[in-house]
Design brief:
Layout (H helix, E strand, L loop, with lengths): L6 E3 L4 E2 L12 E3 H6 L9 E5 L3 H12 L4 E5 L9 H10 L2 E3 L2 E6 L4 E8 L5 E10 L4 E4 L3 E2 L3 H5 L25 E3 L1 H4 L4 H19 L2
Parallel strand pairs: 1-12, 3-10, 4-5, 4-10, 5-6
Antiparallel strand pairs: 2-11, 7-8, 8-9
Helix pairs in contact: 2-3
Length: about 210
């Protein structure tokens, strides 16, 4: 690889904010931040985890190991993004998974949800009128992550999609000639296996680009 053919393999470490009232309260944390140093958080006995991806499952299991007695994971629908293994491990550790809860705000007691109405195919077709107020000690938002956009904003030739992720072709080539990308900054937050697979494609693209 030469100085004119850099390879960019980046991750998406920024927590995605929900933009709801109350998410800046002192007892509200974001999943990635919490997992970096869980011992710095006085988690309490009752924890509400917002989101149902792999990070949410990690948060739930960590909170239980930290001493929380009741940990509930709230999913918007019945189709969670976490792997089946991660869901099973979280439930075996003692976490409860509740489906059909759309977060509206976080008040002084805890999260406030609208409860989904499902059809026979488990698709959300509406919401109940009455809000569901949940009391807990701590709320951890683990809805998703997003790619940091500083690189895109400062490099005109790089193009991102509406999710803030870099656009690449099947070989990991970005819209900027000689620049390759892989990992979370391309695919969005996923597993290490997916990131490595993307990196392997990018490396193959680089080798081809260099004629090796």
């Amino acid at each position: 690889m030469t100085a004119t053919t850099p390879c960019l393999w980046a991750r998406a470490p920024g927590a995605r904010k929900l933009g709801i009232p109350g998410e800046t309260r002192g007892n509200v944390f974001f999943g990635i931040d919490y997992l970096v140093d869980p011992l710095s958080v006085a988690i309490g006995q009752s924890v509400a985890v917002i989101g149902a991806g792999n990070v949410a499952m990690d948060v739930a299991r960590t909170a239980l190991r930290q001493g929380a007695r009741n940990v509930t994971i709230y999913a918007r629908s019945k189709h969670v993004s976490a792997s089946s293994d991660e869901v099973e491990f979280a439930q075996l550790d003692g976490a409860e998974l509740v489906y059909g809860k759309a977060i509206q705000e976080i008040d002084g007691n805890g999260p406030v949800f609208r409860t989904a109405i499902f059809d026979e195919g488990d698709a959300v077709v509406g919401y109940e009128d009455e809000l569901d107020h949940v009391s807990c000690d701590t709320v951890v938002i683990a809805a998703s992550q997003q790619a940091k956009d500083k690189l895109v904003l400062t490099t005109d030739a790089l193009v991102a999609n509406d999710r803030g992720l870099l656009e690449v072709d099947e070989n990991g080539v970005t819209m900027m000639p000689g620049v390759f990308a892989a990992g979370d900054v391309v695919s969005g937050p996923s597993t290490v296996v997916h990131a490595v697979a993307g990196a392997n494609r990018a490396v193959a693209g680089i080798m081809s680009y260099l004629g090796i």
